[in-house]
Amino acid sequence: EYMGTQVPMSTAGPESSGVTLASVAAVVCASAALFATMVGRALRRRGDTADARAMRRLSGAHTFFGLDIGGTLSKIAFFCREEGVGQPLTERVRKVLSYIEAKDRYGETGRHDRYLSFTSPAIGGSLHFIHFETRHVTNALQTIHEGALAPYIDVVGATGGGAHLYAELIHSSLGVALHKVDEMTSLVRGITFLLTHVDDEAFCVEDASESEPPPELRLLLELSRPTRLVPLAPEPGGLFPFILVNIGSGVSVLRVDSPTQYSRITGTALGGATFLGLCKALTGVSSFEAALALASSGDVTGVNMTVKDIYGGDYVGDGFVLPENLTASCFGKLVRSERPFEDFAKADIALALLLMITQNVAHVGYQTSLRVGVHKIYFAGS
Predict the structure, then answer these.
(1) What residues contact 374, with CB distance under 8 A and at least 6 apart?
(2) What pLDDT, on a 0 to 100 scale, did the predictor assign at position 349?
(3) Which of left, alpha, beta for 224 (phi over 0: left; psi -120 to 50: alpha)?
(4) Which stretches of the chain are DSSP H helices?
(5) Contact yes or no for 273/296 (Cβ under 8 A)
(6) Is the peptide bond before 259 cis (omega within 30 degrees of 0)?
(7) Could you give the angle at the alpha carbon of 316 between the alpha carbons of 313 and 322, nearest 5°?
(8) Rounded distance between C-alpha atoms, residue 377 and residue 382, angstroms
(9) How far from chain centre, in Å, is Cα 17?
């Protein structure tokens, strides 16, 4: 969730880095790891190593579930073979489909992410997604039980730390076995599939103002310039290598050289859980969804200290300019103000927190790309 910000492209010069606005992309689908969980299980069953064989394995299945239990959010992926392809859908498949399609919300934090659903000829069917906060995993299990879905599910492909932490609870509650798949491996395979087979699953953020900004301003995070999201076409060739910044409760930064070859380079403990935890403490919101909704109506200029607050206008340096509306210090105005904290708008606090975390994540990804010499960056996560 960029909330109108731009990702910094460079802090040196145009020749020092190949990172451009078009090559810094955010992966839309938060559940890439889930699809790879399915692919991984299909590969394991067949004993094959080729993605094409895995795709054919999935297209022959009626349904398939994947589960990613993260530290903050959990995601469920549901694969359904396209009607009319292969054998007719069974009654058990129709039962599950009917239950999922009939609802948009499940309990307090469960949401049916319809906008993430997509159909792919490569797998001969469609993927659908649901997310909920991991702290409500017990309630989620109860919802599955009440929906009488458990008898229709034998094995669920699972990844994330919760696949280990909650394995016994899920088995004892529902009688469902978890087929565990390594989190980073499933993430890389899922991202690779999306980027090579599925349209509109990645996008870049471009400047949408009428005038082209001066070169020096393209190097900065400017909150005032309007932006637009531009979908990126699938890359069947020339995809690798790339940097993958996976934003979860914390953040991991990977270098990916192929669907099966990757390494974790670095990370940061400032991630989604940091944002939600601080937002709960400072604004009283009760969920991730509520925190994002609150932030969407905020104005960071009421909280963050800008260059103008320090210099009275732009800072003109030797060969560069810091525009007056550039954030100089997150939450800096709270230091100068005599107002009690309660007088600051909660929406402003939420947005300032969101920008503080996302800007830090963007910088970590960018600096990593410079260090390893890989100039294509993808951001993924909820």
Answers:
(1) 241, 242, 243, 255
(2) 97
(3) alpha
(4) 32-46, 51-59, 91-101, 137-146, 162-165, 167-174, 183-197, 272-283, 288-295, 307-311, 333-336, 346-372
(5) no
(6) no
(7) 70
(8) 17
(9) 25
Where b means 16+ CB within 10 Å and e means fewer, 181-216 reads bebbbbbbbbbbbbbebbeebbebbebeeeeeeeee
Q: Judge whether residue 29 has pLDDT over 70.
A: no
17 three-state secondary structure: coil
Residues labelled catalytic: 183
CA-wise closest residue to 29 among 274, 379, 275 = 379
In three-state secondary structure terms, 161 is: coil
Nearest by Cα to 159 from 99, 100, 246, 269: 246
The amino acid at 128: H
Query: How many residues would you count in the chain?
Result: 382
With vertex at residue 267, the alpha carbon angle to CA 320 and CA 288, rounded to the nearest 5 degrees, is 95
Cβ(339)–Cβ(291) below 8 Å: no
pLDDT by residue (tens digit) across 234-268? 666 689 999 999 999 999 999 999 999 999 999 99
